[in-house]
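Bit of a strange request maybe. I'm writing a small parser for structure token strings and I need a real example to test against, not something I typed by hand. Could someone generate the tokens for this chain?
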Amino acid sequence: MKICHHLLQSNQILDLSALPADGFRLIMCKGRSTRLHAPSGWSSVILVLAGSLACASAATAWTLSSRQCQVWVDGALRLYMARMGWWLCVAAPADIWKLAVDHRHADNYGFLPHQFNADHRMIRAITRTFHNPAAQRTSLAIDHTHLAHLRGALCERQQALQAQLQRCSGRTALRRHQTLLRLLRVQHLIRHTTEDRLDLHQLAASANYSPTHLIRAYRDVFDETPSEFANRLRQQRAWAMVRGTALSIGEISQSLGFDSESAFCRAFKQAFGLTTGQARRLEANASAPQPRP
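Reply from user aminoacidic:
Good idea to test on real output. This should exercise your parser:
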């Protein structure tokens, strides 16, 4: 199996669609204005070590911060770091990922898209794959071993998703995997949408479902509807912004898409049983230094 190392420095671009799809591409990006384009049909694992990385698919755009990891399998992906930063990407066609099989996961039909905060173990698993045997005159077997370890670590990280896989409709494991991939696409769109009102028809179209079928399938797997998930995320963001930022309530209500500050305050009180002022006073009291006994 072919393994190629790439180093992208400031103002450099790498388009993987222009390269042979015959192995793994290990891309280290350091500097500012670094860009990477991965075509559809490839699976990518991205880890940001420093800075902020802009990600864009055909359907949406989002940002990864330092120590965040993204597993991406759902179509073409464009990555761009405008300012000084450091990030890594392990990319290959999906079929080639399956050749680096960890036999404990032999029935796995491929990774599922997943964004998470990387712990020390995951950071180590990813960074070790960037050991360059050509530079150190060692065997390519070392790189293959590190890739197998990375794949195993990713499979373990996706165990929660594998549990949800069992709740998906479909007579075969492959069909259930395809169903969950569609539902995760919808979840990703909800998580990263900036619009205040959810377009259920647009979400359903992204999964090739009717709105009614999407609501039923989503509830079967995640125990809530897409609208309920969106409302829960909105409440979490409201709580975090009120208690954890110095933004004015007007700025918060505007960023969350509320029609007015008063509408946001009513929704906040209904969700948490506290006014925004009470929530901020709780945070101020909790962070204040305590007197010594």
